[in-house]
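Page 37, top half.
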Amino acid sequence: MILHIIEAVVCGPYSLELTFDDGTYKRVNVFPLLEGPIFEPLREPSYFARRVLDPVAGTVVWPNEADFAPEALYELEPEEETPNRIHARPAAATANR
């Protein structure tokens, strides 16, 4: 199965709230993946916040073209969520069930 990210929200210096097209929602910290020159700019929180969702590739991308495979993000251990935010599964993720 090929995974795609359908929503990505920056929720901390290195954290993303992600919704995948299989309905999975998780909040992950990508700091452990920020190795190598392409990811160096992402260590700056203001640059990290400049992510966009590439609907064709189905993943998050930054202005310097750094990105992560959706599968790599899917495999990360989830962070604990803040209790004041309630998440509903997107209609697009549930429409095919």
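Page 37, bottom half:
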Amino acid sequence: MLHDPKSNSDYTRRVTSISSILREHDPAYIGPDMPEDEYDPEAAAILARAKDASDPEKLAVVIANVLAEAFDEWTGSRSLRDTELALRIWSVLHASNP
């Protein structure tokens, strides 16, 4: 299950985990001095839209769409890194206890 609305702590853990992965990959090239919560809105949007992704490749499209909407200067795919990013986020979404 991706998100049970009754479980706010599970939702918060997943958003925090996804945000951490996004900070590590820094797909918008914000840089090392970014605020800790810089990618929280995008992480929440990815989690909300992830129900539409039936596999990591489709999740990569969801992630790309979220980032394109959030960052005007975002240039899109970085292929191998996008795949790794999607796989890492996929594992968070489908873990029992992320």
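Margin note: The chain is about 60% helix and 0% strand.
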